[in-house]
Amino acid sequence: MPIVPLSNRASLVGPHEFYLLKILLNNSDSYELIPKDIIEEEIDLNPSQLDFYLSKLLKLKLIYHEKNLGKDSFKITFSGIDVLSIKKLYEMKILKNLSTVIGEGKESVVYMGYDFDENPIVVKFHRIGKTSYKTLRRKKRTLQGRKSWVRLSIENAESEYNALACLWENRAYVPRPLGLGVNAVAMEYINGKPLFKTDLLEPSRVLDDILSTIRISYVYCKLSHNDLSPYNVVMDTERNIPYVIDWPQASRASEDSLEKDIRHILDFFRNKYDINREINDTLSYIRD
């Protein structure tokens, strides 16, 4: 059976289903699987109504069901959290329509979307441990005491949004952040292509621009990117501007992470464009 697109599933979620998803989300830190009786205590529906709406969410693959200690129990899925994010961004007048997937990584899915003026935007859904819930349950048995996958996804989104907000306010070359959903970051759409696929006419200036962004990150936002590479830089080919993307792993600035990031980007420009910059001189520029 084909999976209904995420945007269509979001449009099929009414007020009761929306409230059920919020109940499951809010209880996800306390329960690996939320017993049905907990849900019954928090929603004003009779048993047949509750079963109807739970069945609908199950068919849309927005929740997961399993018998746990003999009780019907449920958990929100990543698609369920995505739907909550879509609804929130819509209420914030940031996202009008969600379109197609334009990128996918181990811990995120990136969609094209459109705002209320029909301008293209990007919506990045964070999904830590993006896999089946049966697999997650097996993994979680070895991770007792750690945060839930749901919580980690939410915190990753918050981390990326906060990093982008600080960087943008300080005039770094990053996509402009537009809003934060539950596990989603809406941001400006950059019409370009990855640095590693671009043949630069002014590689030295582009390198300077990238290093300028990393300096702002380190000095003003007190952050290290932690994953800087030519794969995480998008070239706006019309304006010839490099935008540093993918900031969810950004952490408190440290010498080790800074040096690792700088070595990666200097190696790329040395190997492709024969531009040689001393690592110590570059680090001094960024710190000062």
UniProtKB/TrEMBL annotation:
EC number per UniProt: 2.7.11.1
Chain ranges of the RIO kinase domain: 67-288
GO biological process: one example: maturation of SSU-rRNA
Pfam families (alphabetical): RIO1, Rio2_N
Family matches, as SMART domains: RIO
Requisite cofactors: Mg(2+)
GO cellular component terms given for this protein: cytosol; preribosome, small subunit precursor
The keyword Nucleotide-binding is annotated on this UniProt entry: yes
Catalyzed reactions: L-threonyl-[protein] + ATP = O-phospho-L-threonyl-[protein] + ADP + H(+); L-seryl-[protein] + ATP = O-phospho-L-seryl-[protein] + ADP + H(+)
Keyword Transferase appears in the UniProt entry: yes
GO molecular function term, any single one: metal ion binding
Keywords assigned by UniProt, alphabetized: ATP-binding, Kinase, Magnesium, Metal-binding, Nucleotide-binding, Serine/threonine-protein kinase, Transferase
Family: Belongs to the protein kinase superfamily. RIO-type Ser/Thr kinase family.
PANTHER family the UniProt entry points to: SER/THR-PROTEIN KINASE RIO2, SERINE_THREONINE-PROTEIN KINASE RIO2
Record protein name field: non-specific serine/threonine protein kinase
Organism whose genome encodes this protein: Sulfuracidifex tepidarius
